[in-house]
Q: What sequence folds into this?
């Protein structure tokens, strides 16, 4: 399948947003393919052993997206901004559930039951990252959004700039400082946990 | 830290990043004009930056 252009996706999103139900049928496979690609890229990243199954993630992401029909879609970048939030919620919810399960031994009731292979260490990392991102949001909300878009939706610097309507240079600076800040926060937490 | 303090830390961080690494300590001593906690905060983030590549 040819990779659809930004314009095609945007037009379909706008058509769907304006009540054209057929546009959603055309859009669904395109968005699924795109999300699949993004999720694969995310899973293939630094986190060896993070075996959350891509298909389960993508299906779950799409199911949650469908519930968001009242959201105004402005563009592909806007859409993936929403996708990033959804992916963050899915991954962190899942990691928290794993975290609780390891601590308390309770039976797990998560919708991603087929993908129950997130390694313990990785779950803890993801929960810590989510916590730190919430702290960063209080200091500088845009930096938190930059990390969310880049990490949870796999957007490039340029796509992130488009989604946030700022310059690429601003995104690059936000990312540089946010990554340093998060790295320090997570290591500080680790030291406290080890103490 | 307050958002205002973080914004100030960010300004100095980005200004320092524009400089060669060996020029950064002197720059920060001057720019922080005696505010030691501000200087330590920026230096700690610059150190974190060196280790943080690709961690997320």
A:
């Amino acid at each position: 399948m040819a990779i659809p252009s930004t314009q095609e996706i945007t037009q379909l999103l706008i058509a769907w947003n304006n009540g054209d139900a057929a546009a959603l049928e055309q859009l669904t496979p395109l968005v699924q393919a795109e999300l699949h690609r993004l999720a694969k890229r995310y899973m293939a990243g630094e986190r060896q052993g993070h075996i959350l199954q891509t298909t389960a993630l993508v299906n779950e992401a799409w199911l949650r997206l469908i519930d968001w029909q009242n959201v105004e879609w402005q563009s592909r970048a806007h859409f993936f901004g929403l996708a990033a939030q959804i992916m963050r919620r899915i991954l962190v919810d899942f990691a928290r559930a794993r975290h609780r399960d390891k601590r308390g031994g309770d039976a797990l009731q998560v919708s991603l039951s087929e993908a129950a292979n997130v390694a313990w260490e990785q779950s803890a990392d993801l929960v810590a990252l989510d916590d730190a991102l919430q702290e960063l949001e209080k200091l500088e909300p845009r930096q938190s959004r930059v990390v969310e878009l880049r990490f949870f939706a796999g957007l490039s610097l340029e796509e992130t700039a488009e989604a946030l309507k700022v310059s690429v240079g601003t995104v690059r600076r936000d990312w540089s400082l946010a990554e340093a800040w998060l790295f320090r926060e997570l290591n500080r937490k680790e030291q406290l946990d080890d103490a | 830290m307050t958002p205002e303090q973080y914004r100030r830390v960010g300004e100095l961080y980005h200004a320092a990043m524009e400089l060669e690494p060996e020029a950064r300590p002197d720059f920060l001593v001057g720019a922080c004009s005696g505010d030691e906690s501000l200087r330590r905060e920026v230096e700690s983030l610059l150190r974190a930056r060196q280790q943080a590549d690709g961690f997320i």
